[in-house]
Design a protein that fits this description.
The structure holds 2 protein chains of 2 kinds. By secondary structure, chain A is α+β, with helices and mostly antiparallel strands. Helix content of chain A is about 55%, strand content about 15%. Chain A has a 3-stranded antiparallel sheet. In chain A, strand 2 (about 60-65) and strand 3 (about 75-80) form a beta hairpin. The radius of gyration of chain A is 15 Å and the shape is elongated. The two termini of chain A are about 25 Å apart. By secondary structure, chain B is of the alpha+beta class. In chain B, about 50% of the residues lie in helices and about 15% in strands. In chain B, strands 1, 2, 3, 4, 5, 6, 7, 8, 9 and 10 form a 10-stranded mixed sheet that branches. In chain B, a hairpin with a 4-residue loop joins strand 6 and strand 7. In chain B, helix 16 (about 495-535) packs across helix 23. Chain B is globular and about 120 Å long. Classes of the chains: A alpha+beta, B alpha+beta. Chains A and B meet through helix 2, helix 3, strand 3 and helix 4 of A and helix 1, helix 2 and helix 4 of B.
C-alpha cells in the first residue's frame, strides 16, 4: 500500500487525538501515528515537532521536560481542556468534510 | 480561554529555556528511533542514518521549531503595537484611566506601607514574636497609664524567681547633660537605664565593645555607658578608639564600653520613658537601697521585657508569673491591693493605641481603592461599548474570539502596568512625605518604607480589575451572536437597556462610596478646625521657652536659691538686651502646653473650703503675662517693686476668681497659698494642658517672692522664635559657671502645641487627601459616563432638535439624567455614612459624628463636582448639529 502524505492541517488533529490516550513524547506520538494507520499514513517527523510547539503556544497542549530512563531528557506533551474542545469541534467538521468529499466522488 | 491565556503568558516567559530544550528533545527522538531500528537487526550506523533521514535532518527541524516560536513572538509584538496605537487613539480615555490608576495605586501603597511597618511587621529583633512585656496594672483602672509598669523591686523579685524566660530586663528613664568642652556647649542626651540582660533579651549586641553584665548593676563608683551609633559618629567621628573614652556628664563621667548598631532602639515610646527623640546612651541600671523596697508606689517607672523560653507559651508564662505574684502577695499583702500582673506580646504594647487609628486609615484608603476600581471598570465598559462595532467587523472577517480578546487583553495589561508603574513612583514619593509628616511617638516610624508586597497587591488588584472589565465585551462575541451584535451596533441610536443600567449602577456606587469617604474627611477637617480655633488664652506664636535646671542641691538651700535666682535674673537682663527679643520673662515652672503642673493647697482666711482644695501655682516675673499676651482683666500685674521685702501678693486667673469669689471683686482679698497673700490682679484663663483640656484654677506669685532652683525663660521674639536661640544659649552659659551642673531644654511654645495636635493634624491631612482623591476619581467617573451617554444619544438628540427642541431643553434633559443618578448615589451614600460615622467618634473633637453641617457640605461639594463633570457632555449635546447627527448613521 502506497504511503499517503498527510493533508495540510490534519496533523494537528492527529496529534490531539493521540494525546487523548494519555501524555506522550514526540517520538511516541510519531510511533503511534505509524501504528494506528498501519504505516499507511506517515507523519513527516520533520513537521511533527514544529506542530507540537505551535499547539503548545496556542494552549492546546502543555509540555514538561522530564528525565526519562537512561538519563535522557524527553519532553512530555499533555492535552489541555482547550485542546480537547478543539479536537471535538474539528472532528465534527472533519466528518462533515469527509462526508461531502465522499458524496462528490461517488456521484460521478 | 483560560488555558490559552496561561499558554500565552508562559510562552512569553519561557522562550529562552525552551529553545535550549529543543536540542534535548530531538536528541531523545533520534536515540529512540535508533534503538527501535537496531532491535529489528539494523546495524548501528545504518540505524542512525535512517533515523536522521526520517526526521529530515536535525538542523532543519530545530530551525522550524524556532520559527514557530519566533513567528509567535512577532505576533505578540504586532498585537502589542496595535494595542498601544489603539490606546493612543483615545487619549482622553487613556490619560483618565492612567490618572485613576496612578493615584489609587500610589496612595493606597503608601498608606498600606505605613500600616504594614507600624502594625503588621514584626519588631526589628531576631525572633521578635518571642518577646513579651511583663508589668503590673491596677485592676480598677483600665487606662493605659496604669498598665505594664513595674517598680524596681518587682523586677528583682520576678527575675530571681521566674523560670519561663531566657532573660528578663528592665528599662527606665535617664538623661545625661554633657559638660561644656572647649567651644562645644553643653548638650542634653536622651538616655535609658537598662538592666544587664537588656541587649541579650532583644538579641542585639554592640557592634563595638560590650554590653552590660550583672556586676554593672552594682554601684562601684566607675560609671559605664553604651552609646548609639549616631552619637558615635557625631561626637567621636566614628573612631574605633571610642571604647574606653569618656562621656563627660555633668553629674558623673561615663566610660564608653560599647557602641550599638545603627537604628537600634527600644521600640516602646511612652511618657514613662520620656522618649520622643532617639536614645543616644544606655546606662546600666544601678539598684540603690531605696529601689530595693517593696511597696513603693512611686517606683512604678520601669518597663520589663522578657524573651520566652523555647516551648513556653505566653499562657504558661502568665500562669507562672501569677503564681510568683501570689507568693509575693502572701509575704507582703498590702503592696498588691488591686494590682495584677500581665504578660503581653511586646508588639502589642508597641502598637497599642495606634492600631485602631491605623485601621481607620486603612478603611479610608480601601474606600479610595474601591472607588478607583469601580471607576476603572466603568471606563473600561464605556470604551468597550464604543468599540463593539469595530470588534464586530473584525469578528465577521474571521477573527476568532481568541484573536479579539488578545488585543483587548494586551490593551488592558499595558494600561494597567503603566498605571501601576506610575503608581509605584507616586508611592515612593508618598512614603517619603508621610514619613516626614508622621507624628512623633508613632512606633517604628523610621523603618517605614514602600513595601514591595503591598505594591504588588495593589498593582495586581488594579490589573485584575482592568483586565476583567476590559475583556467584558469579548463575552458578546461567541460566533452565533456576531450578526446580532453587529445589527445592534448598526442601530446604536439608543443604548441597550442593560448596559445603561449597569453603568448607572456603577456611577451610583461610586457616588455613594465618595459620600462615605467625604463625610469621614469632613468630620476630621471640622474636628481639626475646631481644635485650631480653640482659644488657648495666650498667643503661642514667636515664643521661645528655655528651661534651665540646676542639678545640684547644695547643703545650704536658702543660699542656693538666692544664688540661682540671681543667676537667672542676670541671664534675663542679658536676654532682654539681645536684638530680636521683644519681651523676656521667667516662670518657675508650670509652662503652658508643656505638661507642667504644680499645685499647692489653697485656702481663704475666715472661710471653710473643702479639704484638699488646691490650685495650680506659677512663679513668674513681671513681664510673663505680656510675653504670652495673657489679658489682665482686673487690678495690676506684678512690678519690680514686688520683692522679697514687700507685701506678699498673688494674681488669680478668671476661673479661680469666679470660683472662690463669685460675684465679688477678688482684687484686694487675702488668700492662703504658701502663706497669706493679697490678690492684686485677675488675668484671663490659660488652657494649661492644651486645646483639648479645660480650664484650671491658677495662681501666680512673683518669682522674687519664692524659692527658685531653676526656671523657664519665656521670650517673645520679633520673628521666628528659634532664630535667637544661639544668642540666648550664649547668654546662659556666660552666667552659669561650668562648676555648676546645669541642664537646659529649649523649644518654641508652638513646638509644644504642635506636638499636642500632631496626631490630629496628621489624621486630618490624610483624610482630606483621601477625600480629594475620592472626589476627583468619582468626578472623572461621572464625566466618563455622561460623555458616553451623550455620544450614544447623538442621533436621538439630532432628531429632537430637527423637530424643534431647544438647546436649553436638551441641556436640561442631559443634566437631569445626571442629577438623577447622582441623587440615588447621594442618598445611598448618606445612609451608609450615617450608619458608619459612629465608628470614628473616638477620633473627633467637639464634632458629632452626625454633624448636619458636614453632611450638607459633602452633598453640596459632590453635587457641584458631579454636575460640573456632567456639564461638558451636556453642553456638547445641546450644540449637536441635527444634520451631522443624522448623517452619522
Amino acid at each position: 500500500m502506497p504511503k499517503t502524505d498527510l493533508l495540510q492541517g490534519t496533523l494537528d488533529l492527529l496529534i490531539l487525538k493521540i494525546l487523548t490516550l494519555g501524555p506522550n513524547h514526540g517520538w511516541g506520538i510519531a510511533n503511534r501515528i505509524r501504528q494506528i494507520s498501519r504505516d499507511g499514513l506517515n507523519a513527516s517527523q520533520g513537521s511533527l515537532y514544529p506542530a507540537l510547539h505551535r499547539l503548545e503556544l496556542s494552549g492546546d497542549v502543555k509540555s514538561k521536560m522530564t528525565s526519562s530512563e537512561n538519563n535522557r531528557r524527553a519532553r512530555i506533551y499533555t492535552l489541555t481542556p482547550a485542546g480537547r474542545r478543539r479536537l471535538d469541534s474539528e472532528t465534527a467538521s472533519w466528518d462533515q468534510f469527509a462526508l461531502s468529499m465522499k458524496r462528490i466522488l461517488q456521484a460521478g | 480561554m483560560f488555558a490559552r491565556l496561561v499558554a500565552y503568558v508562559r510562552g512569553l516567559a519561557g522562550r529562552r529555556r525552551i529553545s535550549a530544550e529543543v536540542d534535548d528533545e530531538l536528541r531523545f527522538h533520534i536515540d529512540q528511533e535508533i534503538e527501535a531500528h537496531m532491535s529489528r537487526g539494523v546495524s548501528p550506523v545504518e540505524a542512525r542514518r535512517m533515523a536522521l533521514r526520517d526526521l529530515g535532518g536535525l538542523t532543519p527541524v530545530t530551525q522550524a521549531v524556532h520559527e514557530v516560536r519566533t513567528i509567535w513572538l512577532d505576533l505578540l509584538w504586532r498585537d502589542a503595537r496595535h494595542a498601544v496605537r489603539s490606546l493612543r487613539r483615545t487619549p482622553a480615555f487613556t490619560s483618565v484611566a492612567l490618572a485613576v490608576l496612578t493615584l489609587s495605586i500610589g496612595a493606597t501603597t503608601a498608606i498600606f506601607s505605613v500600616v504594614d511597618a507600624v502594625i503588621l511587621r514584626g519588631l526589628p529583633f531576631p525572633e521578635s514574636d518571642r518577646l513579651v512585656a511583663v508589668g503590673e496594672f491596677n485592676v480598677k483602672d483600665s487606662s493605659p497609664a496604669s498598665m505594664n509598669l513595674a517598680a524596681p523591686q518587682n523586677f528583682l523579685d520576678w527575675r530571681d524567681q521566674q523560670d519561663v524566660f531566657t532573660g528578663l530586663a528592665a528599662v527606665g528613664y535617664a538623661e545625661i547633660g554633657l559638660r561644656r568642652q572647649g567651644d562645644v556647649l553643653p548638650e542634653n542626651l536622651r538616655a535609658q537605664r537598662v538592666t544587664a540582660d537588656f541587649f541579650s533579651v532583644l538579641r542585639t549586641q554592640p557592634v563595638l565593645g560590650r554590653g552590660f553584665a550583672s556586676d554593672d548593676e552594682v554601684d562601684r563608683g566607675g560609671r559605664v555607658a553604651v552609646i548609639s551609633y549616631a552619637l558615635w559618629q557625631r561626637r567621636f567621628g566614628g573612631s574605633p578608639d571610642v571604647i574606653g573614652a569618656r562621656l563627660p556628664g555633668q553629674l558623673a563621667s561615663f566610660e564608653v564600653v560599647g557602641v550599638m548598631p545603627p537604628g537600634f532602639s527600644y521600640p516602646v515610646d511612652t511618657y514613662v520613658l520620656g522618649v520622643r527623640e532617639p536614645v543616644d546612651v544606655w546606662l546600666p541600671y544601678i539598684f540603690s537601697d531605696a529601689d530595693r523596697v517593696r511597696g513603693n508606689i512611686y517606683g512604678y517607672n520601669l518597663h520589663v521585657i522578657g524573651r520566652l523560653r523555647d516551648g513556653v507559651s505566653i499562657e504558661r508564662a502568665q500562669a507562672r508569673m501569677n503564681q510568683i505574684t501570689a507568693n509575693l502577695a502572701a509575704e507582703t499583702p498590702r503592696w498588691f491591693t488591686d494590682r495584677a500582673i500581665k504578660v503581653v506580646p511586646l508588639r502589642e504594647l508597641v502598637t497599642r493605641g495606634v492600631s485602631r487609628w491605623m485601621i481607620m486609615l486603612l478603611a479610608a484608603v480601601s474606600f479610595v481603592l474601591l472607588i478607583a476600581c469601580v471607576n476603572l471598570a466603568n471606563l473600561m465598559l464605556v470604551r468597550a461599548t464604543h468599540r463593539i462595532r469595530e470588534l464586530g467587523i473584525r469578528s465577521a472577517l474571521g477573527a476568532s474570539r481568541w484573536d479579539l480578546s488578545r488585543v483587548l487583553l494586551l490593551e488592558s495589561i499595558i494600561l494597567s502596568l503603566t498605571g501601576a508603574a506610575l503608581g509605584a513612583a507616586v508611592a515612593w514619593w508618598g512614603v517619603d512625605v508621610l514619613r516626614s509628616m508622621i507624628p512623633a511617638g508613632v512606633p517604628r516610624a523610621a523603618t517605614i518604607a514602600v513595601d514591595l508586597r503591598v505594591l504588588a497587591t495593589t498593582g495586581i488588584l488594579a490589573v485584575v480589575t482592568g483586565v476583567a472589565f476590559g475583556m467584558a465585551p469579548v463575552v458578546k462575541f461567541s460566533r452565533p451572536t456576531v450578526a446580532r451584535v453587529l445589527n445592534q451596533a448598526e442601530r446604536s441610536s439608543t443604548a441597550s437597556r442593560r448596559t445603561t443600567v449597569l453603568r448607572s449602577g456603577l456611577v451610583v456606587a461610586e457616588v455613594a462610596l465618595a459620600v462615605v469617604l467625604l463625610v469621614g474627611s469632613g468630620l476630621f477637617l471640622a474636628s481639626f478646625a475646631r481644635l485650631m480655633n480653640v482659644n488657648l488664652g495666650l498667643d503661642r506664636d514667636n515664643v521661645l521657652t528655655i528651661q534651665v535646671r540646676v542639678l545640684e542641691l547644695p547643703p545650704d538651700i536658702q543660699q542656693a536659691a538666692q544664688r540661682n535666682r540671681q543667676l537667672l535674673m542676670n541671664v534675663l537682663g542679658r536676654v532682654r538686651a539681645l536684638p530680636g527679643v521683644e519681651i523676656a520673662s521667667l516662670t518657675g515652672g508650670g509652662l503652658p502646653l508643656r505638661g507642667d503642673l504644680r499645685t499647692v493647697d489653697f485656702g481663704i482666711p475666715g472661710r471653710d473650703l473643702p479639704r484638699n482644695t488646691d490650685i495650680a501655682l506659677n512663679q513668674i516675673s513681671a513681664d510673663y503675662f505680656r510675653a504670652l499676651k495673657v489679658p489682665l482683666l482686673k487690678g495690676r500685674v506684678f512690678a519690680d517693686t514686688d520683692s522679697q521685702n514687700s507685701e506678699p501678693v498673688v494674681i488669680l486667673n478668671q476661673a479661680a476668681a469666679a470660683r472662690y469669689f463669685p460675684g465679688e471683686d477678688a482684687v484686694g482679698r487675702v488668700v492662703r497659698l504658701a502663706g497669706n497673700r493679697t490678690v492684686v490682679g485677675v488675668v484671663g484663663d490659660i488652657r494649661q494642658d492644651g486645646p483639648e483640656s479645660g480650664w484650671r484654677t491658677q495662681a501666680f506669685v512673683p518669682i522674687a517672692q519664692s524659692r527658685v532652683f531653676g526656671a523657664t525663660l519665656v521670650i517673645r521674639t520679633a520673628s521666628r522664635a528659634e532664630g535667637i536661640l544661639p544668642a540666648v544659649r550664649q547668654a546662659i552659659w556666660s552666667e552659669f559657671p561650668d562648676s555648676l551642673p546645669t541642664r537646659i531644654d529649649e523649644h518654641s511654645l508652638s513646638y509644644y502645641f504642635d506636638a499636642l495636635v500632631a496626631e490630629r493634624r496628621f489624621n486630618m491631612m490624610l483624610l482630606a487627601l483621601f477625600g480629594v482623591l475620592g472626589l476627583c476619581i468619582s468626578s472623572v467617573g461621572i464625566y466618563g459616563v455622561m460623555a458616553y451617554v451623550v455620544s450614544q444619544r447623538t442621533q436621538e438628540i439630532g432628531i429632537r432638535m430637527a423637530l424643534g427642541a431647544l438647546p436649553s431643553t436638551i441641556l436640561r434633559s442631559v443634566l437631569g439624567s445626571a442629577a438623577l443618578t447622582m441623587m440615588v448615589g447621594l442618598a445611598i451614600g448618606l445612609i451608609g455614612a450615617w450608619g458608619l460615622s459612629g465608628l470614628v467618634r473616638a477620633f473627633l473633637f467637639e464634632v458629632q459624628p452626625r454633624d448636619p453641617m458636614v453632611y450638607a457640605a459633602v452633598v453640596l461639594v459632590l453635587s457641584i463636582a458631579g454636575l460640573a463633570a456632567a456639564f461638558g457632555p451636556a453642553r456638547r449635546a445641546s450644540s449637536v448639529d441635527p444634520l451631522i447627527a443624522l448623517r452619522m448613521e
